[in-house]
Structure formats: C-alpha cells, structure tokens
Amino acid sequence: MSTPGINRNPYAAFKIPEFKNFIIGRCLYIMGLRMTGTVIGWWIYLLTNSKLALGFVGLAEVIPALSLALYAGHHIDINEKRRLLLRCILAYVGCLFLLILLSTDYTTHYFHHWTIAVLICAVIGITGAIRAFSGPTFSAMISQIVPKEILPSAASISSATWLIASICGHASAGFLIAFLGINKSFFVILFMIAGGYFFLSKLSVKPVFVTIKTKTWQSVKEGISYVFKTKEILGALSLDLFAVLFGGAVALVPVFAKDILNIGPIGFGWLNAAADIGSIITVTTLTIRPLQRQQGRILFFAVGGFGLCIILFAISKLFWLSFAALLMSGCMDGVSVIVRSTILQLKTPDELRGRVMSVNSMFINSSNELGQFESGVAAKLMGTVTSVIFGGCMTIAVVIATWFKAPSLRKMEY
Length: 414
Fold this sequence. Notes:
It is a single chain. By secondary structure, the chain is an all-alpha fold. The protein folds into two domains: 6-208, MFS general substrate transporter like domains (Growth Hormone, Chain: A), CATH 1.20.1250; 217-410, MFS general substrate transporter like domains (Growth Hormone, Chain: A). It has helices spanning 17-48, 51-78, 81-102, 105-110, 113-141, 151-200, 216-229, 231-247, 253-260, 265-288, 295-315, 319-347, 353-382, 384-405, 407-410. Helix 6 crosses helix 12 (319-347), helix 9 (253-260) packs across helix 10 and helix 11 (295-315) runs antiparallel to helix 14.
C-alpha cells in the first residue's frame, strides 16, 4: 500500500480514491453545519432581538455535545464507523427538515416568536448530540483510510479542508440569507448535506478493532486514562484548551471595533475575519510544505506567539496593527491545529481512536464555549483591554508551565 518516499509528498493521500471521497464528503458536511449555525444565529436574533437568546443557542448545542462525548467515544470504538457516520448524517437531515418546517410562513403566522425560538433550541440540542458522535468518528476514520507513513500529511489536509469549509460556510450563509431568505437557505444546506452523504457512502466498510465487550464506564475510563498517561497528547490538548480559554479575544472583537478602534461595519468584518485568514494561510502552507522536525518545540513557540499576538491586539489603538495582530494569532493557531491533530493521529492506537478523539472533542468544544464566557466575565470585572492582556499573559504562563511538565511533547518529532 505504500512506497518509499511517499510520505515526503504532501499530496500523496490524494492518490487514494477513498481519501478523496472522504475529504469531499467531510467538506460538504462541515460547510452545511457552519451554514446552519450562521443562519440560525441570524434567525434567532430576528425573532427575539435578544443577545441572551444567542447565548442560549450555543448552550443548547454544547450541553448535549459535552454530556455525550465520553459515551460517544466508547460507542464509536465498538461499532463500524462508516455506518455510524452515515446514520449521524441522516439524523442531521431530519433536523434540517424540522428547521425548514419552523421557518415557513405558516409557522411564523400561527406561533409566537419566542415559541419558535425555543423549538429551534430544541432542534439545536439534537444536532449537538449528533455532533458528539460525528466529529470524533470523522477523526477516527482517517487512519483507516490512509497508511501510517502518510498519516501526517493526510491529517494536515483534513485539518485544512475542515478550516476552509468552516470559514466558507460562515461566509456563504450570509449571502444565502440576503438572496434567498431563511427558509430557502435551509434547502440549499440540505442539498449540501445530501452531497456529503453521497461521497461518504462510497467509503468501504471499516474494521472494528475492539472485539472484547467491556462495560461502558470501564471502556470510557480506558480512553481517559490513555489521554492522561500519554504526555504528548495531554500536553497538546492542554495547550489548546487554555490558549483558547484565556486568549480567545474573538468574542470581544465587536467591543474593540466599536468602542476602541471606532471602525464601521466593513472594518469590523475584516477584523473578525483576520484570525481565520491567518489560519488558512498557515494550514495551507503547512499542507504543501509540512514541518520536517522539532514539531513539538514549534508547537510551544506557536502557542506562546499566539499569547503575544493577543496582548498586542489588546494594547493597539490602530486598525492596521489590530488586524495584523489577529492575523498573526490565526497563523500561530494554524500551526497548533496541524501539530495537535497530527500528534493525535500518530499517538492513538486504533482500538482507542473513538474514545481519544471524543476526549479531544471535549477539550476543543469546551475551550471555545467557555472561552467566550470567560472573555465576557473578565471584561465585565477587569475592563475590556485589561481582560484581554490578562488572557494573553495567562496563555504564555500555561506554555511555560507545560514546557517543564511535558518534556516528551517538547522533544517530539514525527
């Protein structure tokens, strides 16, 4: 299945037809998910004119996603992954039909707007449960599609396409709302999700590596235990968790744009996109020219650089400097995404992939949601600028602490 030197070709994974189907299917599915989230955010705000309601949308999704994550890992490992993934997508299609029904003129006419908002949150709760299973399943399948020697480049390609699909989904949803309206936008999303199902259905049936039936809690503990005893994985996840938790200034970008930099909607749009642009640049570059050595050490410098960029953003009073700081923070985050995802793929045994990827999902999802909450609370207590400076400093402190606590991560190369 492999040939000498194939791991030096960053595009080697594309020579495998099944990997191409996997990437296209995943890309369409992720775009659909991100478009759904953006459309719902706009829809909820139109219905309620309440910022708090937007917070409840995120809460409605993250609670089931985190609550089911550990069980999902156990379930993924003991079941055939292709079938499980296709069932998740079909369940998501069912949720889209419910959203289409809720966005019709009939529903709007006969139901109170807050009733519709509550029903939307209920549907979002179901999608959060689906996300608990689908996300780790995607990650766990990569090693069953490509040989181990090209796994780093395949992981980089997967991360790059996920990021691009996520950003394109957010951006295109705005145009869909403007030109088609909310109800018809969901039909476009349904078409994309169906396209993802078509390509993913072309994958072959995957082997199940866990053949010995164990109790659910015992199985879950095995996954958690493996993460905590494998310092490279624990260190990489911890760096990402605390960097996003303390250094996530994205939630406060509207405040900086309006009250500190005094820029209009167009300037705010560019500022909001800066970190994503930086991430795409880095992930694309590292997919074409992968890191050859000292990846663990580079990860530390990238997360530390992320913290410095956040501090620079906090003290900047100039739009171009603030934009550059967020752009560079996205570049540093892109390095972290690539190295962390590759470490997870290389260090996780096949029989534990579902459980480890689910723990990873908990770290990533909780850091994003809690990071937004932390940013708001810290800004309220300390003031906007001080809270972001504090977050950047805490990120650097976590990097220094992890540098000494996880020497195997610092020395890791792949």
